[in-house]
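Quick one, tokens below:
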């Protein structure tokens, strides 16, 4: 039986009148891989801090039977040294200094936590600011971690690869689902479908009983009238008979009313509201190409150029993902586009909307979420509320002041503001940062239906796969375009790799045959020609091996 490492019971914590956590029981065993998910503000980070001992709950008991390490979103210990040289090298850990980038700080926190080799690792959004290479390295370490891992992440690919249990935090309560994130989604969809079926049956039975009750009322009223031209004796008989029938009808109606009042009420499943307008098409781009980059060179003093005479096109109506590691120049290229660099040609009629890391700067914090979203809107208020709802901002939340909203909620307002405007070319730089996993999926659905042109940066593979129909890679100081989705690119890359392996094998067989002939020449063989051929094939072999 697995060894228990951590146990908590009756954990409660609140802020003001709001209960944030109300968890009956939670246990972590050796080897557990638990993904903790929930909306922004649900209390995920607070829960991790309680488990680690950094924060004390208002009430409840916590038992820790092993050492705990944490990868925090923000950590005062960023400046501490990372002693494991292998991990320092693998995660490219930089010496601490002021001005380190978000990704560099994240890699320091990851390497520091992994160095401790604790029995329990708590990881709070460890993929923030990591590029795809960093995410892959972290995923491998978490897969082979000796101990238990409790992971908070909006990276669905990571949750699918690592987790064997999903813990959903909702309204302060914790619900466990066996399996990875896809299994959790399947279970939630099945639950939602059953809930919809139950609600439909409830509505049908409710309607049937109401119709039956109304029918009994109308029947009762119709038999009270004495027919015209009826004698006294007949009238008395009619009245007695009517009274008996009316009493039976009344009894039946009361029975139906009781059944109606005792029906188990079923909640209507929350629907994802549909958007009835094609976002991004308010003012169409008439050109075939929305923007074009010609001869772009990006270099900083003392460093090798990031781009050298690079070229790229963004067709109108396309959804293009900019792909490359941190530091390759993606954000710099976006800045060049936004600042009207002469090497960027923007077609007439293109209206660019930008969402970047400082997206909150465009908001008026004294106005409500709805007022901010409406500021540049070409749609009416009901449509803008629908857009906000599609981004998981519903009900009274739209009337809250932006000043009291979380970073994730402000991101939703800034995105809704763009969707509601007459923008027809959206440029998004890491739009999934600060979003919870549900809001990320909601944004993915909206962007996949977006009718304008989209150019975006994201290291979330599932997000890119769900949206992009074109990929632009930063490779060897050039911009290399692939026309297709990320999965199609992976398949093509796999086929190219297989073709390369077959070519390498064929060259190795040819080299072996030549080596045998050179060691034991046959009649008519010319040693100089054999050596020349061998060296030529060996050069091809080395080139292919270097690219494999």
């Amino acid at each position: 039986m697995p060894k228990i490492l951590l146990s908590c019971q009756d954990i409660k914590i609140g802020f003001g009148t709001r209960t944030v956590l109300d968890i009956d029981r939670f246990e972590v065993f050796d080897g557990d891989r638990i993904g903790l998910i929930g909306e922004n503000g649900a209390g995920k980070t607070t829960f991790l801090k309680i488990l680690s001992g950094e924060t004390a709950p208002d009430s409840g008991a916590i038992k820790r039977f092993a050492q705990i390490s944490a990868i925090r979103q923000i950590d005062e210990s960023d400046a501490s040294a990372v002693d494991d040289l292998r991990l320092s090298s693998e995660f490219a850990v930089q010496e601490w200094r002021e001005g380190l980038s978000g990704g560099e700080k994240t890699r320091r926190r990851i390497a520091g936590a992994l160095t401790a080799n604790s029995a329990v690792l708590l990881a709070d959004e460890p993929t923030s600011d990591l590029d795809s290479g960093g995410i892959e390295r972290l995923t491998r370490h978490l897969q082979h971690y000796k101990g238990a891992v409790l992971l908070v992440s909006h990276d669905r690919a990571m949750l699918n690869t690592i987790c064997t249990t999903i813990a959903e935090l909702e309204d302060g309560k914790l619900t466990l689902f066996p399996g990875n994130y896809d299994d959790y989604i399947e279970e939630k969809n099945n639950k939602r479908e059953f809930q919809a079926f139950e609600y439909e049956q409830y509505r049908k039975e409710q309607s049937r009983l109401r119709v039956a009750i109304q029918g009994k009322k109308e029947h009762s009223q119709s038999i009270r009238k004495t027919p015209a031209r009826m004698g006294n004796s007949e009238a008395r008989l009619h009245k007695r008979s009517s009274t008996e029938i009316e009493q039976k009808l009344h009894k039946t109606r009361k029975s139906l009313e009781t059944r109606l009042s005792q029906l188990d009420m079923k909640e209507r499943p929350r629907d994802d509201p549909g958007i009835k307008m094609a976002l991004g098409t308010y003012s169409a781009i008439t050109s075939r190409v929305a923007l074009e980059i010609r001869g772009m060179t990006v270099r900083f003093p003392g460093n090798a150029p990031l781009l050298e005479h690079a070229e790229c096109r963004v067709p109108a109506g396309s959804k293009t993902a900019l792909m490359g590691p941190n530091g390759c120049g993606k954000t710099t290229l976006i800045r060049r586009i936004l600042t009207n660099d002469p090497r960027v040609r923007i077609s007439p009629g293109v209206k660019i909307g930008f969402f970047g890391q400082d997206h909150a700067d465009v908001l008026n914090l004294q106005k409500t979420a709805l007022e901010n979203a409406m500021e540049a809107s070409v749609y009416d208020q009901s449509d803008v509320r629908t857009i906000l709802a599609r981004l998981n901002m519903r009900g009274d939340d739209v009337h809250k002041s932006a000043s009291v909203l979380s970073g994730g909620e402000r991101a939703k307002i800034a995105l809704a503001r763009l969707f509601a405007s007459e923008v027809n070319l959206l440029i998004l730089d890491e739009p999934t940062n600060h979003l919870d996993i549900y809001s990320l999926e909601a944004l993915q659905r909206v962007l996949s239906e977006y009718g304008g042109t989209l150019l975006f940066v994201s290291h979330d593979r599932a997000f890119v796969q769900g949206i992009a129909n074109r990929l632009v890679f930063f490779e060897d100081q050039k911009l290399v375009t692939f026309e297709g989705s990320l999965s199609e690119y992976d398949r093509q890359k796999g086929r190219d790799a297989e073709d390369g392996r077959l070519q390498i094998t064929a060259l190795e067989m040819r080299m072996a045959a030549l080596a045998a002939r050179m060691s034991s020449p046959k009649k008519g063989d010319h040693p100089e020609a054999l050596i020349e051929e061998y060296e030529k094939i060996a050069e091809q072999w080395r080139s292919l091996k270097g690219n494999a």
